[in-house]
Amino acid sequence: MSMKICGRVVKYGEDVNTDVIIPSKYLAFTNPHDLAKHAMEGLDDSFIEKVHDRKIVVAARNFGCGSSREQAPVALKYAGVEAVVADSFARIFYRNAVNIGLPVLECPGAAETVADGDEVEVDMGEGLVRDLSNGKVLHGNKTPGFLLKIMEKGLVQYIKEGRS
């Protein structure tokens, strides 16, 4: 099984924490579309405008560090982010992203190689990031088939459908 995602990149540095992905004053929102309106507000006031044509977030190490709020990957997904590629992830963010169906790929060197605005193709199953703007191919961690299925549907739907 494979999952390929293509799009332009919005790029961030290291230690992007959940407090800037979705600031705490919005945690009372239960509607994911309301959360999405405030995604990355603590870091990048222009993120909501950028995500209209940039669907892949690339970041350096430790993306999603901080508190274990599930709202962080929800806000990104509903804002229009189709995948997050990072040199490394905070473990709880990674798991929360998988559970809600936001594809995440650990790919050391991505933040160093991929530039803001580049066009990339992310092959989740093979763990590859092809930077179509500069021709470079990066090798990240392959995503096991069962995780691809969870990312595709979200954990709740995956379980409801009998893990098929």
Write the layout of secondary structure elements.
Layout: E1 4-11, H1 18-21, H2 32-36, H3 47-50, E2 56-59, H4 71-79, E3 83-86, H5 91-100, E4 104-106, H6 110-113, E5 119-123, E6 128-131, E7 137-139, H7 145-153, H8 155-160
Parallel strand pairs: 1-2, 2-3, 3-4
Antiparallel strand pairs: 1-5, 5-6, 6-7
Helix pairs in contact: 5-7
Low-confidence stretches: none
Helix amount? 25-40%
- Helix-strand string: EHHHEHEHEHEEEHH
Overall SS class: alpha/beta
Largest sheet: 7 strands, mixed
- The shape is globular
Proportion of beta-strand residues: 15-25%
What is the CATH topology assignment?
Answer: Aconitase, domain 4
Model description:
By secondary structure, this protein is α/β, with parallel strands linked by helices. It has one domain (4-160): Alpha-Beta Barrel (Aconitase, domain 4). The protein has helices spanning 18-21, 32-36, 47-50, 71-79, 91-100, 110-113, 145-153, 155-160; strands spanning 4-11, 56-59, 83-86, 104-106, 119-123, 128-131, 137-139. Helix 5 (91-100) crosses helix 7 (145-153). The chain has a 7-stranded mixed beta sheet. The protein has 8 helices and 7 strands, in the order E-H-H-H-E-H-E-H-E-H-E-E-E-H-H.
